Amino acid sequence: MVKKKSNKRRKNWKKFWKLGVDEFNTQYFDVTKEGELIVQEGNYVYNLNDIVKKYGSPTEIVFPFILEERLEDLQDYFQAFMKIQGYKGKFYYHYPMKVNQNKEFIMPLISEGAHMEVGSVNELWIVKKLWEGEKFNSKLRVLCNGPKTDAYIGLIEELKNKGLSIIPVIEDEHELNKLHKTYKGDVGIRVNLDTKADTHWDKKIDRFGFTAKELLELPKMKNLKLLHYHIGSQIMTSGSVIKPIGEAMDLYIKLVKTHPNLDTLDIGGGFGVPYEKKPFYNAKEVSEKIIRLLKKISDEAGVRHPNLVVEWGRYIVAPAQITIYNIIAEKPIPKGNAKSWYVIDGSFMNDLLDTWAIHQKWHIVPVNNASTNALKSVWLAGSSCDSDDKYTAGGNYILMPKLKDGENQYFAVFDSGAYQDALASHHCLLSSPAKLIAQDGTIKIARKRETADSIGKLFGWNGDHR
Ligand SMILES: *Cc1c(COP(=O)(O)O)cnc(C)c1O
């Protein structure tokens, strides 16, 4: 008798969880035979299950090598396409600080050659501290967006006078009056384009920038260097990234005639991230199209190829951090698209606030038991006492291993590196996750998990609680 071959083939769990895919930014991730989620930095391997068992949960893990690789690739694309197409302008990447101001993000980006874009006096103050500490050289350029308070303008002037290469971007009439009269350095100006991009941002209520018509009526400004627009965040199609460039270039060509030193187009941020791990546009294809378009329009108009500034923040930093939670309880869902609530040891509302604010969708993968067929459709509940503290994948469901008695079940939320930290809050006085840095094969603690005492202090409970 012939033995029956087992027809139970091992499932490809890496593929099942959409790991190892360049276009999803998961090329560094894999699942071991034991079903544990791992990350590979070159030949180093980080076992996330071991790490979270050792350091506890909830925890965020930052991967500086991912940041560095992403920025390096982006700069390479633009520089290569400029060279191939004979483009004469220069490429500058400015990192928009508001996307993530953590030191563990900023320092690797500066080391890869990022320039900075700041949106407030306090962000600029961090740049000042770095400058004074000689943490970067004088080639680093700083763009200043956001409403210009007196303190902000004061600091801009101070740093300009100290020799920092800094450009305030004028966003309205009020700033124009303030800066035009007294400020002697280079300035930029922001246009509020008519184009609507495919993003969460409702352009009808955009309040930043001048209309094209207003800009064309400005008197000659010898110190006008840069035309800037920023059209939204997490733009969903490559067409929406590229189309506004044409509109901005039409304006640029007209403005150059009046303002002879204008030489830079700053296309702001907005490049998206495939959070949902579905097909998405990519930076290589888009950067080629951008350079082609800029060259074509400026050649046809007979103007010099403008220098190009890109401020894509989310694109660079979102995939460089994950957030890991443990599941602390299960509750049945009587009626819904999922079978159970899994209650987590942290909070979507606090730690991943965009879940609540803009219904952000996340890619979620078990950290252990990721190679089991015993899966369940669940919704995730944060452990604040707020019914809005939940993640249901938009009313759909999340697949998770069935819970086993006496065993922790951890899971990772991917792409948590953009915006979530500065928006994080303390609803119900829950502690923020710990923050770990995984670099060169070692784990460092960047921020310990908050204690009751340290959170209490934020609310004025100092010491003896009287
Ligand atoms: C927020 C912001 C950015 C970054 O946007 P992303 O969508 O993260 O790329 C860039 N420039 C300006 C002016 C911004 O306000």
Structural overview:
The structure is a single chain. This protein is α/β, with parallel strands linked by helices and 466 residues long. It folds into two domains: 13-62 and 322-458, Lyase, Ornithine Decarboxylase, Chain A, domain 1; 87-311, TIM Barrel (Alpha-Beta Barrel). The protein contains 15 helices and 21 strands. The chain has helices spanning 13-16, 48-55, 64-84, 103-111, 121-132, 150-161, 173-182, 212-216, 238-258, 283-301, 314-317, 348-351, 354-357, 420-423, 452-458; strands at 29-31, 37-41, 44-47, 59-62, 91-96, 115-118, 141-144, 165-170, 187-190, 224-228, 264-266, 307-310, 321-332, 340-344, 364-366, 375-381, 390-391, 398-401, 410-413, 434-439, 442-447. The strands form three sheets. Strands 4, 13, 14, 15, 16, 17, 18, 19, 20 and 21 form a ten-stranded mixed sheet that branches. Strands 5-6-7-8-9-10-11-12 form an eight-stranded parallel β-barrel, surrounded by six helices. A hairpin with a 7-residue loop joins strand 13 (321-332) and strand 14. It starts with 12 loop residues before the first helix and ends in an 8-residue tail after the last helix. The structure holds pyridoxal-5'-phosphate. Pyridoxal-5'-phosphate binds at residues 96, 98-99, 117, 119, 145, 230, 233, 268-271, 311-315. Residues 96, 98-99, 117, 119, 145, 230, 233, 268-271, 311-315 line the site of pyridoxal-5'-phosphate. This is arginine decarboxylase. One of its GO terms (molecular function) is arginine decarboxylase activity. One of its GO terms (biological process) is L-arginine catabolic process. Keywords: Decarboxylase, Lyase, Magnesium, Pyridoxal phosphate, Spermidine biosynthesis.
